[in-house]
Task: inverse folding
């Protein structure tokens, strides 16, 4: 059961961005496993991609071609086309070429995305065979169906949408996402697609996406593993009746930036809420760092500690495990006598020791909740970082141990 | 059940090194929880200590005083005296002072070691009350009893012993260890004590220990957490009828070095074999690195991946998870097309792709074993590193989630 994740919210259509879903029967006959997205002519497209050195064939192609004119995004589930070498690259290119041929755009205007089993050859013919139906299905109203169509091991579709009005014109930002990176290994991958009808240059769009991803998708972790296929795309169709938005657009730029960030954050947190075996949604905040990096190091040391994650699963306010994780985070010249740790609003450790005001009952009350905050005050500077994670449950082991067997 | 860990081997006494065990009733009435070790006058003592910034009070004291004359090591279980601030330092000092008073040595000649619950005040009076009985129990033949006496959540005592002969004189190296660092959080801590009757200067002894620890205790990982209390000590009593061993002692030096390494390795691996919920003993080897650090980065990325650990638990030859972990290890300019991965002797991935010769049956046969080797060939240079770890089982989650509750 996902933690605090309700049914899909209303996903407002984005003029100039259509989605079509069909079934190639890659893993199971009849399953919706192919999604085609069409961007209106003149759209700008930005992307952020996995840093895993073993990035999959579609990622290599999408990364290369995102800088040019992009008209179609082609996503399949059920096969990641990763660890497949040169034949994998050719397979991804073939599916793009087929879609280009059917739609009369250059092959480089189609970006491929794959998620699923690693190391199996991509079933090119099956995907090619599903393209006509997907194209026939294209509609601006298909966000919810596409959110379901890109799911692999997700238990719920994930989407978010924001609108704001400027000079009487409504601007929309809508997005969908799937499955946290590598939380289900061979059915891996985080994918995110966000579109807006604002008009934004490719360069600025890339900046907006990078900034939003660094505060959302790049701040979530289930188990510390990074997929070979992670991608997040941001498309600006420019169909809203507004001039191009630049960094000099003042409030309009700020509103768009905030809407992109809000949608990214909601999509990213939805991935954590639906993390494998998750029973808790945990916010880890490291404040008072001398650098952003040391805040991240501390937050990730806490978020990745199996001991803390099992304590969270058990609703056990085990503050010693948190102190120990902070202590091994590798922060140079860490003065433990300046560190305070809070569980929710409860101070559990003050100046490196158990807080004199702390009682187990207070800690237990926070830990009993589904949404838990861990805040570490380092007392070294003014930098802050926040990340989101889950607990480590029996269900996580069961799912990951029993998968494939 | 520990993986491939039999009953204690014969632990040869070390002349000049006596051990005494008694009960202070720290956690449970009657439990042997205090161990005193006496080093003959003129002994050299070396130590390596946790790098966790939150190091416990006894670690701070032991680290400070190990450079002087050391005559006694005082260990208690049941309380880690960690996260206890200034009062904790005073408490540790008081137990040392009491033992010094009883034995007529300077207070600084007693080094304290604690393992157990974090953040609780050390029960100084209970420990003081147990010292007379421990001193009365001192004997060179007490290694096995001491191995049991330092246990916390270990399911079996751990010891190792080597002897070699030089000029007709037998030299002995014997050691004991307990519980892997932070594999059981609040009953944390890896402790190791190794003694030899060879005569070695403090400086050289420290070099020998650091070198051995870097190849053994510092190459094991259960869950990536590092205790606040980890220590390993090496004592040379100089009671064997041989001249002092120096780096110029040729074969004699080499034999001693090897014996210390062998004992360290056996003790370290015993900790992994008895890791929490362990059902597999896993050797991860990264070869062909440009630097030792990148080999370690790759090996730890594999050893710490919950996805790989759950696959090991499930005996699932999930090679995609291994490639993905190597890819995210953070090695700069990693050329994945040069990487080979072996499971035991079976090549599962060649030049970054699934090996054409590989079959799931071959992989499954290796994974079905209790002892599993994962070897990654990076093809970048000549450096190698090996580490040892376990799988991630239901039992791990159960133990760590249910502990304290």
Result:
């Amino acid at each position: 059961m996902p933690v605090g994740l309700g049914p899909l919210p209303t996903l407002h259509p984005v003029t100039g961005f259509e989605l079509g879903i069909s079934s190639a029967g890659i893993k199971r006959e009849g399953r919706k496993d192919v999604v085609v997205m069409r961007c209106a002519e003149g759209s700008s497209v930005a992307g952020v991609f996995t840093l895993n050195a073993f990035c999959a064939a579609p990622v290599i192609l999408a990364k290369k071609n995102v800088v040019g004119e992009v008209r179609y995004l082609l996503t399949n589930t059920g096969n990641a086309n990763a660890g497949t070498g040169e034949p994998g690259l050719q397979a991804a290119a073939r599916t793009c070429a087929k879609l280009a041929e059917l739609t009369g755009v250059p092959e480089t205007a189609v970006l491929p995305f794959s998620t699923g089993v690693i190391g199996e050859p991509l079933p090119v013919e099956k995907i090619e065979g599903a393209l006509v139906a997907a194209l026939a299905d294209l509609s601006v109203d298909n966000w919810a169906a596409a959110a379901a169509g890109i799911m692999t091991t997700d238990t719920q579709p994930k989407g978010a949408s924001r609108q704001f009005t400027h000079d009487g014109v409504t601007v929309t930002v809508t997005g969908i996402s799937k499955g946290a990176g590598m939380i289900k290994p061979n059915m891996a991958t985080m994918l995110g697609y966000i579109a807006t009808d604002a008009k934004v240059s490719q360069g600025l769009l890339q900046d907006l996406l990078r900034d939003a991803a660094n505060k959302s998708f790049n701040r979530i972790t289930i188990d510390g593993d990074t997929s070979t296929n992670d991608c997040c795309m941001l498309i600006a169709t420019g169909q809203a009746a507004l001039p191009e938005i630049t960094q000099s657009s003042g409030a309009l730029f700020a509103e768009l930036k905030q809407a992109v960030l809000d949608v990214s954050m909601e999509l990213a947190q939805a991935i954590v809420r639906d993390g494998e075996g998750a029973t808790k949604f945990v916010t880890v905040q490291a404040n008072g760092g001398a650098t952003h990096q040391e805040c991240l190091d501390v937050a990730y040391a806490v978020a990745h500690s199996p001991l803390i994650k099992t304590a969270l699963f058990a609703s056990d306010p085990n503050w010693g495990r948190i102190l120990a994780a902070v202590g091994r985070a590798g922060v140079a010249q860490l003065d433990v006598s300046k560190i305070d740790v809070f569980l929710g609003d409860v101070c559990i450790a003050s100046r490196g020791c158990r807080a004199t005001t702390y009682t187990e009952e207070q800690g237990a009350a926070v830990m009993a909740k589904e949404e838990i905050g861990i805040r570490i005050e380092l007392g070294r500077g003014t930098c802050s970082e926040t990340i989101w994670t889950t607990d480590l449950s029996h269900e996580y082991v069961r799912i990951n141990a029993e998968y494939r067997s």
